[in-house]
Amino acid sequence: MIDFLRGPIVHLENEYVIVDMQGIGYRVFCPNPYAWMKEAGEVTIYTHHYVREDAIQLFGFPTRDEQKLFRKLIEVSGIGPRVALGILSGGSPEGVVTAIYQENITFLTKLPGIGKKTAQRMILDLKDKLGGIGDSLITTGLFAPAISTNTSGEVWPEVRDGLKALGYTDTELDRIWQTLKHEVFPDDTADDVMKRALKMLYTG
């Protein structure tokens, strides 16, 4: 099994990155490929090597927690790799784990691809199997799970702060907001808007 890759990212698309491993390009599907675009030089991507009769795919994550949670999620009936990626794109590992511990169905059903029955199955199947994922934040009470929903169309300040933390300038952010503000919908989460913003910044 391929557990991680280390090398430069040479290409990004909406769903995956290409990592150059000594002249061989590995396609790695990620929750948010554009989050890697600020990384220069070699990166480490923790992977899950997924094999079935009609496909061999690599799924990759920036942290061990995301890798571990992905592997737990795909053990749940009805959750395949693509849905698991959607879950990780919609919530942090700590948020998802805490929601499962607290049986917070409202939180879980806001994640992409998750309905009420699947949320209930996640709680039933995983509640006692997630030790070690995000424990430092959960046990100290420093993390409160939440998905910021754009009910008032005002998630941009939160997204802007996140982008500034990645190193983007006020000028860059003001420029893309002029286009992005026309593509924000009432039910968008901050993560939805973040992904669109990162894509715009990457493509120019």
From TrEMBL:
The keyword RNA-binding does not apply. Residues 148-204 are annotated as: Domain III. It holds the Pfam family HHH_5. One of its GO terms (biological process) is DNA recombination. Residues 71-90, 106-125 form the Helix-hairpin-helix DNA-binding motif class domain. One of its GO terms (cellular component) is Holliday junction resolvase complex. Keywords: ATP-binding, Cytoplasm, DNA damage, DNA recombination, DNA repair, DNA-binding, Helicase, Hydrolase, Nucleotide-binding. GO terms for molecular function: ATP binding; four-way junction DNA binding; four-way junction helicase activity; hydrolase activity. The keyword DNA damage applies. It is found in: Cytoplasm. Has three domains with a flexible linker between the domains II and III and assumes an 'L' shape. Domain III is highly mobile and contacts RuvB. The RuvA-RuvB-RuvC complex processes Holliday junction (HJ) DNA during genetic recombination and DNA repair, while the RuvA-RuvB complex plays an important role in the rescue of blocked DNA replication forks via replication fork reversal (RFR). RuvA specifically binds to HJ cruciform DNA, conferring on it an open structure. The RuvB hexamer acts as an ATP-dependent pump, pulling dsDNA into and through the RuvAB complex. HJ branch migration allows RuvC to scan DNA until it finds its consensus sequence, where it cleaves and resolves the cruciform DNA. Homotetramer. Forms an RuvA(8)-RuvB(12)-Holliday junction (HJ) complex. HJ DNA is sandwiched between 2 RuvA tetramers; dsDNA enters through RuvA and exits via RuvB. An RuvB hexamer assembles on each DNA strand where it exits the tetramer. Each RuvB hexamer is contacted by two RuvA subunits (via domain III) on 2 adjacent RuvB subunits; this complex drives branch migration. In the full resolvosome a probable DNA-RuvA(4)-RuvB(12)-RuvC(2) complex forms which resolves the HJ. Belongs to the RuvA family. This is Holliday junction branch migration complex subunit RuvA. It comes from Paenibacillus nuruki. The gene is ruvA.
